[in-house]
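User: Can you recover a sequence for this backbone? Please restate the input before giving your answer.

Assistant: Of course. Working from this structure:
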């Protein structure tokens, strides 16, 4: 049966989940859109799946037409293993958060990592935790998580006033890394930094008054503290760090985009 009305209860639920962090938190689920990231979702975490009518006709009922686009490899086989609800194309557009919907959307259960699990699971000879203080841009947060996976970080710890981890723009920017990088939102970031330090991790605050990172010997068991895009780290969090560091700059540039700065530090 095809859903043909935007007043359908399932459709209204998805719109609420997409638009409101409160709804996502209340249900413990979030929305994922697009075939590439859909392929990354652990099967046990899928709550429900919705596909557009045209997607079914083009990719599920027949072989993918464009063999050069690997996003659509093995689509019939992939969807033979999951239950899905078909949605009329005009209704699916109402669900989508993108200009050109790909026709695939899933509701996914949130992971439930704790700070203790991140600390217990790290390799003390080569660990790197990213600690975020009030990051506000969804693209920055998503990019930090994605780049962090590439660099092999242990996990991401963020203050509760950081942009919502499950914001659709954050999820899209992670390109699937959200399912593999442990992320923890804490109520008290200062307390969390204290716990990280007491476990033996050396903490480094990204700060304009810090030492040149290129001339700094880093601990093998480390955490980088990254601040808000406009204001940097709060004094409270910066002063908790074992050491303040900075990325050397040429010209008149004072600082870098938060995601770019994080990438430089974690690859260092």
């Amino acid at each position: 049966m095809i859903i043909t009305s935007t007043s359908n209860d399932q459709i209204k639920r998805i719109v609420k989940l997409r638009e409101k962090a409160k709804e996502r938190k209340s249900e413990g689920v979030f929305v994922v859109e697009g075939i590439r990231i859909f392929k990354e979702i652990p099967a046990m975490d899928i709550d429900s799946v919705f596909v557009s009518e045209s997607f079914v006709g083009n990719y599920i009922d027949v072989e993918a037409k464009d063999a050069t686009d690997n996003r659509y490899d093995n689509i019939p086989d992939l969807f033979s293993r999951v239950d899905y609800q078909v949605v009329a194309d005009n209704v699916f557009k109402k669900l989508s958060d993108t200009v050109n919907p790909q026709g695939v959307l899933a509701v996914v259960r949130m992971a439930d990592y704790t700070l203790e699990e991140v600390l217990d699971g790290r390799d003390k000879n080569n660990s790197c935790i990213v600690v975020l203080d009030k990051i506000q841009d969804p693209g920055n947060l998503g990019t930090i998580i994605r780049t962090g996976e590439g660099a092999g970080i242990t996990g991401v710890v963020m203050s509760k006033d950081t942009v919502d981890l499950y914001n659709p723009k954050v999820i899209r920017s992670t390109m699937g890394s959200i399912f593999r990088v442990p992320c923890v939102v804490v109520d008290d970031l200062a307390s969390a930094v204290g716990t990280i330090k007491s476990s033996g991790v050396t903490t480094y605050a990204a700060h304009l008054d810090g030492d040149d990172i290129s001339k700094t010997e880093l601990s093998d068991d480390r955490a980088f503290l990254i601040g808000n895009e406009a204001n940097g780290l709060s004094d409270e969090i910066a002063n908790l760090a074992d050491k303040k560091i900075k990325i050397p700059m040429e010209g008149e540039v004072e600082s870098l985009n938060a995601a770019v700065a994080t990438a430089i530090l974690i690859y260092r």
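That completes the design. The longest helix spans residues 138-151.
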